[in-house]
Amino acid sequence: NKKAFVELLFWKSPAAAFEMAKGYGSLQEGEGAARSRVPPWSPQEEQELRELYWKYKEVEGEDVIAAILAHLPTPGRTRRQVVKQLVRM
Q1: How many domains in the chain?
Q2: How far apart are CA 55 and CA 49, in angstroms?
Q3: What's the confidence (pLDDT) of residue 1?
């Protein structure tokens, strides 16, 4: 690639640098940036999250997010994901 020097002037992620070296489109599915994507919330999960929030928001002295995480039927969600989804909703 004769114009690779121009690309080197800008910040690259490790995945982008790998693609520059090995050729664009060389990353397999599930590698690099695609691996870190969060699975989307289904409408059922959103409804359950909404119900759990309304149930635990008035409890004094308890962390609302911790209570939601303990009762969320879908395991694997992080505290950050739950907070982000609640703010978005």
Answers
A1: 1
A2: 10
A3: 63
